[in-house]
From TrEMBL:
Signal peptide: none annotated. Regulates also the sphingolipid metabolism. Mediator of sterol homeostasis involved in sterol uptake, trafficking and distribution into membranes. InterPro entries: Arv1. It is found in: Endoplasmic reticulum membrane; Golgi apparatus membrane. This is Protein ARV.
């Protein structure tokens, strides 16, 4: 049943159509329903185009999330809207690109390794270079197998690996949140974790709020530093996930942060475990959970600043 996007009051319909020939996105032949409680239009986005929706999504307006989750895309029968399935596939492909690029940035290149390990015979300081090479090899010995394990595989196998990695990370992020919200917890825990029996709507909210993963399209126009842009995109996704959960569940920011943190921890564990099993030891940030790596790096800097890490 549709709701008013201003006060969440259920309404019988969002608009009344007077002419089938006119386009309701232009406001022709359509009369918006007035909410009986707040006396405002129940859903003004009915006659707005996708550009307005996108701008309001960037601004994290609760009304646009209610429009998408309750009046447009959300379904309570446990099935996904076809548009959400297409959006999920698109986000997965962009996630593959970002994760793959981050891991390649984190790994040492084979050309640089060859330049270090193979001194030229005409070099008069070849014996000194060989000593430096030995120390360099010992310092990078933990990363070289990781580099060769993936870089020497066929490109199709590399893509399949990162596709499975990102798919499992996405599942491990959604599944714990859906499971926790589907449980009827006892009274003390119910104040911390709300109950929501519609898992498909939860995943819809998480996918819609992850639209900022599409921002790397700007890399085709302007050149950015990939690690910095990936970190900014990941933090923007987390902020939007928290906002979407808070708007959907009306549970407050603190409980929404806890739910998002549960999913992020599970996703980080799955990504780290898969990469370690594949022999990739490039750190937590390479697992597609850049915000986790940022927090660890921030903690290390704070510990070093106060003298704990010395």
């Amino acid at each position: 049943m549709p709701i008013c996007i201003e006060c969440r009051y259920p309404v019988s319909s969002l608009y009344t159509t007077y002419s089938k020939a006119d386009d309701r996105t232009l406001g022709k032949g359509v009369r918006l329903t007035q909410c009986p409680r707040c006396k405002r239009f129940a859903d003004k986005y009915v006659e707005h185009d996708f550009v307005v929706l996108f701008i309001d999504l960037v601004l994290i307006k609760p009304q646009v999330y209610r429009h998408l989750l309750f009046n447009r895309l959300g379904r309570e029968d446990g099935r996904f809207n076809p548009s959400i399935i297409r959006l999920g596939v698109l986000l997965l492909l962009f996630d593959v690109y970002l994760t793959w690029a981050r891991i390649e940035e984190a790994m040492p290149s084979s050309s640089a390794t060859d330049a270090i390990s193979m001194p030229t015979p005409s070099d008069p300081f070849a014996h000194l270079t060989s000593n430096a090479t030995g120390s360099s090899d010992s310092s990078t010995s933990g990363l070289l197998p990781s580099s060769y394990l993936l870089s020497e595989q066929p490109i199709i196998l590399q893509y399949v690996f990162f596709l499975l990695l990102c798919a499992l990370e996405t599942i491990s992020f959604h599944l714990p949140i859906r499971t926790v919200l589907s449980l009827r917890l006892p009274r003390p825990l119910s104040y911390l974790i709300p109950h929501y029996p519609h898992p498909a709507v939860i995943s819809t909210a998480l996918l819609v709020s992850s639209f900022t993963k599409l921002f790397p399209l700007l890399l085709l126009i302007w050149k950015y530093d990939l690690p910095s842009s990936a970190s900014a995109v990941s933090w923007a996704v987390i902020i939007n996930n928290v906002a979407a959960l808070e708007i959907l569940l009306e549970c407050g920011v603190i409980r929404a942060v806890i739910l998002a943190a549960v999913g992020a921890v599970c996703r980080a564990g799955v990504g780290w475990g898969i990469l370690r099993a594949a022999g990739v030891g490039s750190g937590v940030a390479a697992a597609g959970v850049v915000e986790t790596g940022d927090l660890i790096e921030l903690w290390k800097r704070l510990a070093l600043h106060v003298g704990i890490g010395q």
